[in-house]
Amino acid sequence: MKEISVLGLGYIGLPTASILATNGYIVKGVDVSPSVVDIINKGGIHIEEPGLKTLVQAAVNSGNLKAYIQPQQADVYILAVPTPITEDKRADLSYVEAAARSILPLLKHGDLVILESTSPPGTTVDFLCPILAESGLELGTDLFVAHCPERVLPGKIIKELIQNTRIIGGINEASARMSRDIYASFVEGDMHLTDATTAEMVKIMENTYRDVNIALANELARISPSLNINAWDVIRFANLHPRVNIHSPGPGVGGHCISVDPWFIVEKFPETARIISQARHINDFMPEFTYRMLLDTVKDIPNPKITLLGLTYKPDVDDIRESPALKLRELIEQNNDLRLAVYDPHVKHFDYELSGLEAAFKDSDCILLMVDHAEFKYINPRQVASIVRSRNVIDTRNALHRNDWTEAGFQVRLLGRDYAENKEAITRLTFLEDQLYSPV
User: Fold this and answer.
1) Residues involved in catalysis
2) Sheet strand arrangement including 26-30
3) Residue 430's CB: how many other CB atoms inside 10 A?
4) Is the pLDDT of residue 440 over 90?
5) Would you identify the CATH topology of the domain 3-189?
6) Which residues, at least 6 apart from 74, have a Cβ–Cβ distance to it below 8 Å?
7) For 254-286, what is each residue's pLDDT tens digit?
8) pTM exceeding 0.85
9) Domain 197-440 in CATH: superfamily?
């Protein structure tokens, strides 16, 4: 099995295809975007990830990686397409279905299909397999199928694809073992074989654990100002206990995993997954909570200008998927009394006009830090003080040197320390809780 087709050349598909190509496989990458295909075939990249450009260039120059618009026949098909959620918080499996149907005419005896896309439990067996069965091949005997979810962190994707433990779930033992043999060509971490549904649930629960933990930290951040204490100190001291690991609070949870995957469980088990659902509501509420913190800060300033620092969902990447900064930007835009400037050194293309750093600060009345990019930690507050109109800062990530900004004349508010939410905000979250727990 020397020819592999990777469908979806995004944050996971492109690194995976490139690694496989540099390990001797003939890889036929597939993407629906002509521009993405053209960029990759020229040895370029369309996403920001350390080390990826060098890897792609090596794969393309070796002749082992080529990108196409349409699927090409291979021995192994890896589906690495998006699985977003709809507005009503249900899994959108249309990309998985489209990818599966696109390879149906190409499937032959002995082929292997691997779903890498994070999916609700049961997707491989109950959704993907019936589609693949339309090929006329007997699943598990003529055609082998597995779910092998990625478990990587943007910014460290290449390293973690190679070094992380891999969970490989087949529809039968033969499918799992065949998949393991493919990943064994580059994975240095342990590989554990299981069934497909267990593998799906493992990936979802990894992200759900983090989401619930962050929700706990966010509740603490909302409670602490009322007690005149610093949530960040509470977390730091609590985590000195050997069995405690509270995550950090923030203005919300973003990314295509943590903010999405828990809904896959809630969708399947709405009456049972109560803690998971409540955690999602808490974290989804944080952009609005941050917005209320902002309004309280500028309430006495006429026609205030807001400087939004950071659009991505995590630091030092260009990934804006499900970013809480996007939701906050929308709230600010809907308020005609507010003016807005947005600066993010990592985001090159966005549907809203981005400002340069100096232009973003000029005549600003409140600087709102949403992402702790490394660049933001070294901004000189004295230089900023000379060009803003009002000296206000809201730090949602505990990333700034508070004393430096205070000495430059700024009022610095820290999420989890300097703002007690108002009655209206509490009432809204209580409403969400009532809706969640109301009997059917």
Assistant:
1) 203, 257
2) 65-68, 26-30, 3-7, 76-79, 112-115, 144-147, 166-170, 191-195
3) 10
4) no
5) Rossmann fold (3.40.50)
6) 3, 4, 5, 26, 28, 106, 111
7) 988 889 999 999 999 999 999 999 999 999 999
8) yes
9) NAD(P)-binding Rossmann-like Domain (3.40.50.720)
